[in-house]
Amino acid sequence: MYIPADADLILEDTIETSGIGGIYPKGILIGKISEIIQSKNITDRYAIVETTVDFSKLETVLVITE
């Protein structure tokens, strides 16, 4: 996931779909930031996201289209 250099990241921030790419609707909850990793290059940083869903316990999945 691309994180803009000027974005303010805070632990426990929620991550949602933006709807920008047109693939997923805006506002679907993905998870929360559990760790922020800064690299030596100031423009590169990473966020570890703890997903809202425990994928190992899913039995049925609904696929949203339009």
Topology:
Elements: E1 14-16, E2 29-38, E3 45-51
Walk me through the structure.
The chain has 66 residues and is mainly β. It has a domain at 14-53. Helix content is 0%, strand content 30%. It contains no helices and three strands. It has a three-stranded antiparallel beta sheet, with no helix packed on it. The relative contact order is 0.24.
Figure out the total of helices.
0
Instruction: Summarize model confidence as the mean pLDDT.
Output: 85
Tell me the distance between the termini: 23 Å
SSE class: mainly beta
- Coarse morphology: globular
Residue stretches low in confidence (pLDDT < 50, at least 5 long) are none
> Beta fraction of the residues?
25-35%
Number of strands: 3
Sketch the topology as an H/E string, one letter per element.
EEE
* Fraction in helix: under 10%
The main sheet comes to: 3 strands, antiparallel
Radius of gyration: 14 Å
Cross-sheet strand order for the largest sheet = 1-2-3
Summed up:
0% of the residues lie in helices and 30% in strands.
Describe this protein with a few key phrases:
66 residues, mainly beta, three-stranded antiparallel β-sheet, globular
